[in-house]
Amino acid sequence: MSNDKPQEVMLKLRNLTVEDIPQLEALMDRVYDDIGGSWPRESLKRLISEFPEGQITIEDKGQLVAAALAVRCKHARFTRQHTYEDLLGRRETFKHDVEGDALYGLDLFVHPDYRDYRLGRRLYDARKEICVQLNLRSIIAGGRIINYHKHSDEMTPEQYIRAVKQREAYDPILSFQLANDFQVLRILRNYLPEDERSRGFATLLEWSNIVYEPESLEAEKFVKKNVRVSIIQWQMRATKSFEEWLEQVEYFVDSMADYTADFVLFPEFFNAPLMSMGDQKNQYEAIRFLASFAQQTIDAIQGFAVAYNINIIAGSIPVLEGNVLYNNAYLFRRDGSHEVQPKIHITPHEQRDWVITGGSSLRAFDTDAGRVGVLICYDVEFPELPRLLREQGIDILFVPFWTDTKNGFLRVQRCAQARAIENEIYVAIGGSVGNLPQVQNVDIQYAQSAVYSPSDFAFPHDATMAVSTPNTEMALIADLNLDLLNDVRLEGSVTNGKDMRKDLYRLKWVGD
User: pLDDT under 50 in the chain at which residues?
Assistant: First the structure.
């Protein structure tokens, strides 16, 4: 085709087919000569085969002159920080999520000789129609800012985008996208590192489908980005009755609900004061006396979660199942449902004096404030468990603990902080303080509750979101931004999750 504008055209918009691939490769080589030309043939073939309705082209008398390529994706995932590589699977093929609720615009390109025909607008209109027909939430795209290299010495990317919006600068891609009702959500860093004209930056753009209707309430379920967690540094004190002890629990639940906390965490064995009402001569029997209150405790706290509209982590409650005693943590959701996480690793003292048996299940739990995990005290000292939970997608790990001495506390504290860093998650630890001289093996307590974060620039310099005063009954509150976790996982100073050598080692739960 000549470099002159065609005099007569016969344009046709249609879906791409596998037979179009040779022409498509030639067109991409022509348009993208500055960033490597066409995608691999296998990538194009698979894209057309897996999602044919999302791949559209315009031809002129049988010759491809423009095209737009797309996949379906999860809106919640790709409206966060990401790079072009995050869209790629094995062998440079693109990830198409058949259950995705958004359309991701991978690419849109027009032959240079046809750029006066506004073919880009036709392709955008066709994409919007596909979005509406498939009842998708929006169109998302990462857009190059190809004139930024002309201004990078004098402007930041943010300033450049503002200048383009105010028409003080012109960018052929961004200006066109803005004219087609796309909104800039954020700047993507290192989106396409080889894109020297954009200096590796891109804009994350979105066009919202105003007629989108979720297929169910579950599909539209609100997911919080900012989560408020609270920790009760619980004081052990003798009690005269179950009702008196429960009144203290309710007081803290009520208080944290007033602060609009999403979660409140109680420590391991936080119901141990009930043991003071029983016979202490035989420790085997004493802990089983405590277990006799398990169902009352579960029923009451489940009611508090609903009544006060707060998710409660009931640190741990000894529970008898037949003749076997377990040490279980409970997540009580504010919708009335609940989950159980048994303590898996039992300390020598718990085995020797109380004859507690370790559980054999490990699960991540979905909540209205993110996916979370719970590990009781000693369990956090085994790095395999948090890693398995991270692989199940948790963002927050709750660790209720009970330690009597500072060296015991430091084992939990330092392991918890390591788990936050190596798994790129928040870890909240909560313990008990005070004394129970009437109860053997629960005589003294040492605790300094805290919330730990990954260690990177977006987080506090000591990777500690909040920390309590040691050995003082108090409530600790911290606001956690879940988007920051995604940012550090994708483009932190180090990216532990992405850099794991799964070609060399793997972690597997027996039975999976």
Answer: 1-2, 217-222
Cα–chain-centroid distance for residue 330? 22
pTM of this prediction?
Answer: 0.62
CATH number of 226-487: 3.60.110.10
CB atoms within 10 A of CB 243: 10
Domain 11-208 superfamily per CATH:
Gcn5-related N-acetyltransferase (GNAT) (3.40.630.30)
Q: Domain map of the chain by residue range?
A: 11-208, 226-487
Give residue 3's pLDDT: 52
Task: State the pLDDT at residue 6.
Answer: 65
Q: 53: how many CB neighbours lie within 10 A of its CB?
A: 11
Tell me what pLDDT residue 512 has. 63
Report how far residue 97's alpha carbon sits from residue 50's, in angstroms, rounded to the nearest whole number: 10
pLDDT in tens, 203-226: 999 999 988 887 654 444 445 789
Q: What whole-number distance in Å separates Cα of residue 171 and Cα of residue 167?
A: 9
Q: What distance in Å separates the CA atoms of residue 406 and residue 111, rounded to the nearest whole number? A: 70
Q: Which residues are catalytic?
A: 268, 343, 377
Across 442-459, b (16+ Cβ under 10 Å) vs e yields: beebbbbbbbbbbbbeeb
Where is 244: in which H helix or E strand? helix 242-258
Strands 226-236 and 263-265 come out as parallel
* Domains 11-208 and 226-487 are alike in CATH topology: no
